[in-house]
C-alpha cells in the first residue's frame, strides 16, 4: 500500500495470480521488443493497449481511511530513595515535578504518567535505586510506537542502568534532571569485614575504612566511635582511606551488637553513611557448671540428668555423703569416692565456672567459711549462683547463716511447709522472661467434668522464706515465695525454696516445665540478652520496623525512632500480659535505624549494612549519561554551578530528530492512530478500461494498415 496523504492511499487487487501476471508481462515485453527490432508500425498504440490491459488486471482503487489519533505517552520517574533526602534535593524534585505536570498537561496529544522508585525496603529492596525497572514497568502496556520518551528526576545514583543502553532505544529519548549540586563531597564509613561468630570471652577482629569523597580532597584522619551493647562508647583516631582492624571482645552468648560511627568530614552531605553496625553471635565454648549436692536425695539425679542432657555443658558434680549425725573421727577424704578438691574448686578455679549450684546444702564443716565467702565475692564480680533449698535451710545449719547469706534473696523463717501445692506464677513472673509463657505447660489431658485441672503437677514441701530483695516470679504453698531472682553487684542469684522440682521431671500428675525453667534460669544467671527483664529490641519484619520493650511494669511511654536520614518519629507501644510492649512502623529507608527509650538504645539494620544507595550519595551525571546518549536524550542540572537554574524548555520533535539541546529537551511526536473505517473506490471501472482497450486496438490496426 502506498500512502499519498493522511487518510488516503491507492491499493491494487490483481485479478490474476501474480505468477501469471509476471508471465504475461514477460511475453508482452518480448513481443514489443520484437516489433521494435523489426520497426513495425503501430508500436506506440500496442504499448498503450498493453498498459491499459495491465491497469485493468491490477484493479487499482482509491482507499480512504477514517483515522482516530492516539495520544503519545510520556513518563516521569521520580526518585524517592534515601539519597534524595539530602540537602534541598527533595524540594527541587517537588518543584520540578509540579512544573512538568503543569507544562505537559497543556500538550493535547500527550498522556503523562508519573511513577516513583526507591520507596520499598522489604526483602532487600530499597538498597538500590531502580529507576529503569520503574520506567519499563510503567510502559509495559504501551506500544513502543506511542512512547514519547521519559524524564528521570533523580540525583543520578541509579543502580540498574543496563550494560547495553541501546536496548532501551525503543522507549524514546530518556532525559535526566539532576536534583543535586555540582562539586559535592561526602564522608562514609565502610564495613569491610565483620565477623558473624565469636567465642564468649575471646576477641574477634573487624575491618573498617573511612573514605572522604572525592578521594584526595578530605582530611588525613577521622575519629571513630565504637559502642558495644549499649555500653559506654570509646573513640579512636583512624587514618582516612585505609583499612583499619578493630579488635572487640565477645562479652556474652547470643547477639553482641557493635555500633560504629565516624565524625563528619570536611564536606558532608549526610551522616546516614557515617555509621554502621554488625552483630557477632557469641557462642560459648563450653558451659562450665559446678553442682554441689549437700546430701543424696530423690531429686539429685534430676539435677544431674537435666544438666548432662545439654552436650554444651561441662558438669562437675560432687555429693557430700557424710551425714550430719555421723560423729566418728573418720577423715572426710576416706569417706569420699574421690577426693573433694575443695581448694582447687573454691579458690583456684572458681572463676572458671559459669554457674555454681548448691542443692540442699547444709553446713557440715566441709567447706570452710572462707571458701563460701569466695563464692559470694565471685557473684559480686559477675558470677552466677543458684540455690535449691532443702529442709536444712530453715535450721541453724542454713546457708543463710554463712557468708552466702549476704547474697541470698530469701531469709528463712525457720518453718517448713509440708502440704500439697501447685507452683503459680506471680504477676511479675508472668512478665519476667525466665517464667513468662510457662503457664499451662504440659496441660494436655482433658479436665474432668465440673473440675478445673491444675496446669502443673503438685509439689509437697516448701521452705518458708521472706524475700529481702529481688523479684518473686513464682509462689507455692500459702502464696509463699517459691522462686526468687536477684542481681548482686555484677552477678546474679536465683533461689528455689523447695527440693521437689524433681516431681515435674518424673511426670508426677502431668509434670511441669522443669527442664525449660532450669534452662531459662541458667541462661538468665549468665546474662543472656534474650532474657533481660528490662530490655529494648528492634528488628525488621518484611517492610516494617518492629520495636519490643520488655519490662516488669506496664509502660505506656512512646519510644523515639531515628531513621538513617536522622528523621525522628515518636512510636507508641501497646503493652501485653507477657511483659512485652510492641509497636511497628514502615521502614522506608535502608540503613541503620536507632530506637531510644531513656538510657536504652536498640539498633536495627534495614537491608544490607552497606547498601549501594548509601555508598555514594553525591549527585553525578556519569551513570545516566550513556543511557541519554544511546536514546537521544540529555542530562540537565536543575541548579548550575552559579546556583541558578530551572527546568529546561520542553519541545515535541519528530521521530529521528535530535531530542536534546542546550537548555531544552524534546519528547517524540509519533502521530500514531487507529483506523475506525475504510472506503474503497475503483480508479478505473472495468467498462471504461474495455472501451479504452478497444479504441486503442482499432487505432493501432488503422496505423498498421496504412
In what order do the strands lie side by side in the largest sheet?
17-16-18-19-25-24-23-21
Q: Give the domain tally.
A: 5
Please work out how many helical segments DSSP would assign.
14
Shape assignment: elongated
Q: What structural class results from the helix and strand content?
A: alpha/beta
Largest sheet: 8 strands, mixed
First-last Cα distance: 44 Å
Q: What would CATH call the homologous superfamily of the largest domain? A: Class I glutamine amidotransferase (GATase) domain
Average of the residue pLDDT scores? 84
Radius of gyration: 44 Å
The CATH class designation of the largest domain is: Alpha Beta
Count of strand segments: 37
Share of residues in strands:
25-35%
CATH-derived topology of the largest domain: Rossmann fold
Low-confidence stretches: 1-5, 120-125, 441-453
The CATH architecture classification of the largest domain is 3-Layer(aba) Sandwich
Helix content: 10-25%
Keywords: Membrane, Transmembrane, Transmembrane helix
Region (Disordered): 555-575
Transmembrane segments: 16-36, 43-63, 683-701
InterPro entries: Class_I_gatase-like
Walk me through what this model shows.
With 706 residues, the chain is an alpha/beta fold. The protein folds into 5 domains: 92 residues, no CATH class; 134 residues, Rossmann fold; 99 residues, Sandwich (Immunoglobulin-like), CATH 2.60.40.10; 212 residues, Class I glutamine amidotransferase (GATase) domain (Rossmann fold), CATH 3.40.50.880; 72 residues, Immunoglobulins (Immunoglobulin-like), CATH 2.60.40.10. It contains 14 helices and 37 strands. The strands form 9 sheets. It has an 8-stranded mixed sheet with strand order 17-16-18-19-25-24-23-21. α1 runs antiparallel to α2, α2 runs antiparallel to α14 and α7 packs parallel to α8. The longest helix has 20 residues. It is elongated and about 155 Å long. The N terminus is likely disordered. InterPro entries: Class_I_gatase-like. It comes from Nitrospirillum amazonense. This is Glutamine amidotransferase.
Amino acid at each position: 500500500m502506498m500512502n499519498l496523504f493522511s487518510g488516503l492511499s491507492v491499493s491494487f487487487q490483481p485479478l490474476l495470480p501474480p505468477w501469471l501476471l509476471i508471465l504475461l508481462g514477460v511475453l508482452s515485453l518480448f513481443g514489443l521488443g520484437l516489433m521494435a527490432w523489426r520497426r513495425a508500425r503501430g508500436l506506440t498504440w500496442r504499448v498503450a493497449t498493453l498498459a491499459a490491459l495491465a491497469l485493468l488486471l491490477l484493479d487499482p482503487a482509491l482507499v480512504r481511511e477514517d483515522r482516530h489519533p492516539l495520544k503519545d505517552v510520556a513518563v516521569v520517574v521520580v526518585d524517592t530513595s534515601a539519597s534524595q533526602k539530602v540537602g534541598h534535593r527533595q524540594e527541587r524534585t517537588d518543584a520540578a515535578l509540579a512544573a512538568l505536570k503543569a507544562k505537559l498537561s497543556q500538550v493535547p496529544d500527550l498522556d503523562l504518567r508519573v511513577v516513583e522508585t526507591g520507596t520499598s525496603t522489604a526483602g532487600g529492596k530499597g538498597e538500590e535505586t531502580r529507576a529503569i525497572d520503574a520506567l519499563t514497568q510503567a510502559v509495559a502496556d504501551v506500544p513502543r510506537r506511542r512512547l514519547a520518551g521519559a524524564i528521570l528526576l533523580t540525583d543520578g545514583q541509579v543502580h540498574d542502568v543496563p550494560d547495553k543502553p541501546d536496548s532501551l532505544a525503543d522507549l524514546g529519548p530518556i532525559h535526566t534532571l539532576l536534583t543535586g549540586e555540582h562539586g559535592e563531597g561526602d564522608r562514609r564509613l565502610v564495613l569491610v569485614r565483620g565477623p558473624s561468630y565469636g567465642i564468649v570471652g575471646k576477641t574477634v577482629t573487624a575491618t573498617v575504612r573511612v573514605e572522604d569523597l572525592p578521594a584526595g580532597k578530605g582530611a588525613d584522619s577521622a575519629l571513630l566511635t565504637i559502642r558495644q551493647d549499649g555500653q559506654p562508647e570509646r573513640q579512636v583516631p583512624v587514618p582516612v582511606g585505609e583499612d583499619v582492624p578493630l579488635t572487640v571482645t565477645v562479652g556474652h552468648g547470643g547477639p553482641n551488637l557493635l555500633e560504629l560511627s565516624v565524625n563528619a568530614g570536611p564536606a558532608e552531605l549526610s551522616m546516614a553513611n557515617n555509621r554502621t553496625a554488625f552483630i557477632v553471635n557469641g557462642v560459648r565454648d563450653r558451659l562450665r557448671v559446678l553442682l554441689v549436692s549437700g546430701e543424696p536425695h530423690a531429686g539429685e539425679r534430676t539435677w544431674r540428668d537435666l544438666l548432662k542432657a545439654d552436650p554444651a555443658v561441662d558438669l562437675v558434680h560432687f555429693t557430700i555423703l557424710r551425714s550430719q549425725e555421723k560423729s566418728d573421727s573418720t577423715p572426710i577424704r576416706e569417706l569420699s569416692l574421690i577426693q573433694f578438691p575443695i581448694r582447687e574448686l573454691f579458690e583456684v578455679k572458681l572463676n572458671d565456672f559459669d554457674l555454681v549450684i548448691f542443692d540442699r546444702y547444709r553446713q557440715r564443716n566441709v567447706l570452710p567459711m572462707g571458701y563460701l565467702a569466695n563464692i559470694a565475692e565471685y557473684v559480686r564480680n559477675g558470677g552466677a549462683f543458684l540455690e535449691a533449698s532443702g529442709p536444712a535451710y530453715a535450721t541453724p545449719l542454713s546457708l543463710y547463716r554463712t557468708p552466702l547469706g549476704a547474697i541470698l534473696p530469701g531469709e528463712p523463717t525457720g518453718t517448713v511447709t509440708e502440704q500439697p501445692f501447685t507452683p503459680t506464677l506471680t504477676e511479675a513472673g508472668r512478665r519476667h522472661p525466665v517464667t513468662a509463657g510457662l503457664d499451662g505447660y504440659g496441660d494436655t489431658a482433658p479436665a474432668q467434668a465440673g473440675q478445673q485441672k491444675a496446669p502443673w503437677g503438685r509439689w509437697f514441701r516448701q521452705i518458708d522464706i521472706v524475700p529481702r530483695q529481688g523479684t518473686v516470679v513464682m509462689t507455692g504453698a500459702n502464696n509463699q515465695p517459691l522462686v526468687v531472682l536477684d542481681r548482686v553487684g555484677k552477678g546474679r542469684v536465683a533461689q528455689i525454696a523447695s527440693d521437689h522440682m524433681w516431681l515435674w521431671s518424673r511426670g508426677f500428675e502431668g509434670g511441669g516445665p522443669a527442664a525449660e525453667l532450669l534452662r531459662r534460669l541458667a541462661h538468665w544467671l549468665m546474662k543472656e540478652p534474650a532474657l533481660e527483664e528490662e530490655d529494648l529490641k528492634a528488628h525488621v519484619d518484611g517492610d516494617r520496623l518492629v520495636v519490643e520493650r520488655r519490662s516488669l511494669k506496664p509502660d505506656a511511654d512512646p519510644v523515639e525512632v531515628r531513621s538513617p536520614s536522622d528523621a525522628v518519629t515518636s512510636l507508641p507501644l501497646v503493652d501485653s500480659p507477657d511483659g512485652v510492649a510492641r509497636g511497628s512502623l514502615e521502614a522506608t529507608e535502608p540503613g541503620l535505624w536507632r530506637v531510644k527509650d531513656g538510657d536504652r538504645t536498640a539498633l536495627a539494620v534495614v537491608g544490607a549494612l552497606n547498601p549501594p544507595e548509601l555508598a555514594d550519595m553525591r549527585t553525578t551525571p556519569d551513570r545516566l549519561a550513556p543511557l541519554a546518549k544511546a536514546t537521544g536524550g540529555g542530562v540537565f542540572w536543575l541548579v548550575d554551578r552559579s546556583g541558578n537554574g530551572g527546568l529546561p524548555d520542553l519541545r515535541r520533535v519528530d521521530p529521528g530528530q535530535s531530542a536534546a539541546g542546550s537548555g531544552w529537551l524534546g519528547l517524540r511526536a509519533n502521530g500514531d492512530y487507529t483506523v475506525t473505517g475504510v472506503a474503497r473506490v475503483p480508479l478505473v471501472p472495468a467498462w471504461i478500461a474495455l472501451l479504452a482497450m478497444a479504441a486503442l486496438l482499432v487505432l493501432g490496426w488503422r496505423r498498421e494498415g496504412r
